[in-house]
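Below is how a single chain appears once it has passed through the pipeline. First comes the sequence as given, then the structure the pipeline wrote out for it. We keep one example in the README because the format questions we get most often are answered faster by looking than by reading.
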Amino acid sequence: MAKIKKGDLVQVITGKKQDKGGDRG
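Resulting structure:
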């Protein structure tokens, strides 16, 4: 995970947000 592209980083952040949102909502 040393090389991370902006697109991948955005997907990771979005995935975490979706995970928390899905858990709460």
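Helices lie at 6-24.

See the next section for the split statistics.
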